[in-house]
């Protein structure tokens, strides 16, 4: 049989993910999803390797090398899969080198000038604030219209008597908005100033040739910006403070012989200052100098090969130690006088260079800076030299990507010998750098220098050295575990990568504000129609002759031309009817949104005490967008997780160890139907007892001074028992397992306080996984102590063991494993390997114990399905010959020029085989508090969550299952391709999969409490996402992603995050929210409609650029479901009522024109027109917009489905706008014609006998009626009446009469004594009452019909709140005298007003466990409504038919519901469905998640399975009901502290009630006893 070509292999492998019907293969459980992700990547690597082989056959090797280079995400390609094009000119940075004359201007300064390091994220400056802010404000169509009207009113011919007053509303709104925008921007500017004034150390008294002698622009000189070389007051104070520290500073390179590192060992000062750091040896069990970090391959750059044991001596004099260090530094300097690398000792220098303190904003490209441990990197800096002999340094990129693990960077080889300011003066080189760009993961540059050979010939050789991202420190990183770094500033200010990823701060406008432009245009169209009719008809009347105007109005017209007069009348109509386009709306909106922002800031439920931070609104004008979010795009690390790993479980020799249930395991258990009815408080107490027992057992069996009890997370007394029993065969297996954990890693030990706490050892590593693994070994009794070039020292149950490190086979995403080869104390060579279980199992010995393999694999699946991160450990012994033979192969592969990576991998494969399983580990990636419950609430609210993370595929999948974003009921599709065609095939396969399962009926419709049996999720990696975001595949990927419940994007760059958000935002025209905590999230935060940034202990670039900044992800639920929903409904109602009240007022004036020849005469007195929006009707609408509540905050959290109306945009529609407009039109007719009818019945007489027939009398009556109707109308639409509401509405009505009385007291031409005329008049009061009755009756009747027969969700919840016992169930104290008799113990319980965040058991709030009844007399006409909220039925307390009381527990509602069967879910009858709106059909057609769900009160007790048939047979007036269990999206239970957070709510409690202040101590004790004895029912999972 002929061998197949490589192409055939490719085609066969390409279709591995697809079945014969071109459907993408899916998986369900966490373990199978992780295994599938690993297999997918292996297939992908195989495809790449096969392609490379095929290319070698058909192309030449040299061409082939170029094609095979750099296919990583973001390397050589842009985010859409196309070749990357980096625009801009390359920059050259000169250090002690002459700039070519062609690059200098006439003054001798460089032609190309780079920005200084000052940043500005604020939108405005002092100069640009006014013009730029005015431009932003006049983007509103209404503002342009108002400006035109103000200009027209300057001319008296258009009927405006006081143009100065007419312009005040526009000026007021412009000023108020400008002040608000200025305050927002000022806060940003303050943060910018804090960053710009941060301190750093640079090389001073040294000429930076890359900077002009005076780099200031003419504008900066005009503004008085000081010269960069001038010492400002702040810099002077900074230098005075740090003078002593810098004056005697000597930088010493470590020689790699260290053990546990103590702080500051590479700094030596020649002063006795306490703050200075010496090299004196520390007292303690490790009396060695702690020089860090070690050289990995045993080399000593400085030539000091002193054994570790002879470095330090106990009690060495400090002065001698200092002298030794200084002598060593001097010797190093003398030995380096030979020109090595960039050093040229023949180059003349001034010798004046010295380190000096300065500010970040004073740095320029080409400056040389000195960074010390824990310093933040002030700019993008090339590493020239470090304290490590091998040039290594470590940075924490938390501000960039939210990750706290360390990332290694290295110095340039040619500059690594630099260690002093003198060295820098004699260094000469040029950096040829690429232009600045936003990609955080790539950099390409070249170091060019000349070097004289050491052969005495004196010839100069030009040399180059490549510069990559590994030699670049990015602005915002923090230097860790490295004493010092000398670097060259390459990019500053806006050219740094962190700023390029952020972009300019966008000016965001809310969705309602944009829609308001349409409403304004419609009103403007109506205005034009009225004005055209007025102008045309008035012109027709003016053409008539023989009218009274010929006698009484001579010369009254402006022009003799009737056409001109008609035009003037048209413009006068614009002025008269201008209120139909409400300028006061914008004033009121600004006031309301400011109040809403204040309420958000003051919300104590979103206050985070550890950071002393509340939710800070940074953009005030988009609060209503918070109530319409359909998609949330979230980062993972630092946003959903704490980036803290905890060792929870392990399996050793097939025996599992570890107790306690993590959040992830709770969620997994609930998803599988297990009963978790235990009290979390009792569980926590039991775990504490277990931990204490375990610690006591360890202390009694062996000595472990390095144990850190607070960090011990592996709780297993059985493990200690087996380990302490010398006769137990499992003991040796356990010891071998923990030896492997203590040796197989690249962790660096750190001893932060060697004097005070000599046994305190902390570990630093690139991955938090390794820190957790080595930390667990330390706490059990296997601490890792020393890493040096020649030794690895650990303790094994109190006995020191020393191993010789031979080789480290590093971990990478391709290998998915790492190995170490060491020589043990017995002289044997051992290989320890850890990695993914599928990778390890492929390399096990063929004769391996099958029973052990199966047992370990079962434990791995259990751990993975519980949302834990798993690793498998194995080992094998090597013979001397085998190791020597392999070492030669490995060194040859490392020295290869072509295909180096492939050869190294082939060499590793030759030794990583025939392994024996030691066991498996399970780590928990700690979620932030309340994340699972928050995600559950958001999903119930109809919001989809996409995770966009830079982490690897498996990590993202594990977190997805941990936080219940992915469930075992979901069909998970993994999309991974390395070509556009493969990506298309897999995306189309995913769509086919969804379509086939939907057609075959394998999916079930979601029920009220959760989700159907099947949902879909997509996991896609960054490489594939590049193709998916291309123009050809974007529509397909968007369709696939929006049809899935969850999308997880892995290995994505910041630009890809922004493009993904933009794709959904523009492709689906939905509201989006992005949340993150790092600089890599800034782009998507600014791209989304609403951006949220999480605050950190060290600040956050994301929070600085966000619209809302807060501390915890769980606060997002309160922000959206309460504040966002309230703001959306309030603003929507406010807009509609504003347009209504202006229509009723303006159109009433239009009706009057039919009786005055359409000459634009005012019906109302002019002051009424001015004050109508300013005083008479503004406050009720403002109070509605600021304070109205359709449901209480706790009810909104209890029923998150209420949020869906905002997702679907049902509370602010054009239909609603037109309904209010027509309502205003109808009421304007009532206002005018009813008043006209009363006045037509006969001429009334005042109390003094005078006729009441003047226009002022008629107009005032109509005006008062219209104003009162407007205010009462707002009251009818208000849902939450408070004292303020009563006062404002009644006060606004009384103000009308007060103004009439005051203004009529003045001597005026038309309004004199008006109050005396109309107030005593019966016709006046009868007209006002009659007009309001007829005008408001339709609205009152409609509200009644809608709430009684077509109630919305919120109407039912509000009735439950007012008439039912919803307050009792949610723990709200009723008003005095209105307590509900729903006590558990037979007596009224005292409940708390608010949810407490305290963990004090005395503060827990007991709630009733009785089934919920929404109303004392349930109405069948409400129970079957479309909007859901079917009245939960009263159900019996049975457990498999037997009453089974158990103590009430504190659980999240999702956890309680998931442990029990669901209550009845209504199947609506046709008659009931016919009364519903088109909401269901619209939602079902759009998106399954967006359909309105039947909402069930969370505390409702379900019926047992045995009673389903009997109960379902009961008749119901509102239709037929079907009882069935609800398969729902389950979440884990939460801790007692997180249950009381804002993202959860209480369902039941066994804690004591909160006593009344008047209760005595005896009563309080009785209440607590009764509460502790209370019970509630639970149900078996078999009922499901």
TrEMBL record:
Entry's transmembrane regions: 141-159, 165-183, 518-542, 562-587, 1138-1154, 1166-1187, 1224-1242, 1254-1274, 1286-1311, 1317-1337
GO CC annotations, alphabetized: endomembrane system; plasma membrane
Start and end residues of each P-type ATPase A domain: 354-406
EC number(s) per entry: 7.6.2.1
Region spans: Disordered: 63-83, 261-288, 1479-1584
Catalysed reactions, as listed in the record: ATP + H2O + phospholipidSide 1 = ADP + phosphate + phospholipidSide 2; a 1,2-diacyl-sn-glycero-3-phosphoethanolamine(out) + ATP + H2O = a 1,2-diacyl-sn-glycero-3-phosphoethanolamine(in) + ADP + phosphate + H(+)
Cell cycle found in the keyword field: no
Comp. bias (Low complexity): 1531-1549
Alphabetical UniProt keywords: ATP-binding, Magnesium, Membrane, Metal-binding, Nucleotide-binding, Phosphoprotein, Translocase, Transmembrane, Transmembrane helix, Transport
Topology of this chain in the membrane: Multi-pass membrane protein
Example GO molecular function: ATP hydrolysis activity
Span of domain P-type ATPase C-terminal: 1103-1351
Residues of the P-type ATPase N-terminal domain: 112-163
GO biological process entries: phospholipid translocation
PANTHER family reported in the protein's UniProt record: PHOSPHOLIPID-TRANSPORTING ATPASE DNF1-RELATED, PROBABLE PHOSPHOLIPID-TRANSPORTING ATPASE
UniProt name for this protein: Phospholipid-transporting ATPase
Source species: Calocera viscosa (strain TUFC12733)
